[in-house]
What does this fold into?
Amino acid sequence: MTEIIKMAAELGKRIKEDKMTQRLLAAKDAYEQDEKLNRLYTEYNVQQQALTMEYAKEEQDADFVAAIDKRIRELTNEITAHPLFAEYQQAEADYNDLIRLVNDEITYQVTGKRSCSGDCSGCAGCGSK
It folds into this structure.
């Protein structure tokens, strides 16, 4: 194993131990283990399958399609309003930001240039403020 790969492995271990990663893993576990969310997702998938089967027919029942569409919207709203869904989404976004920052720093160390997102609010890298 080359020295760079060893360093990458160590970095990976440290990222795994980071509080953002631990928060993501805990949020994901809680999200996946929640009985209500599992029930909602199961019904959502059944409704999606019913809609797909109805659309596959030569002639669709418009009232049936409307009822399924309505229920799918209700399920989507209920899922996205669930606190565990919100926590998981936020934890994942924060984790992705951490990984992006790590990658940006590696890129900077290799190229000498900072990546630019176009939002200069937290950046002093390119001097375009």
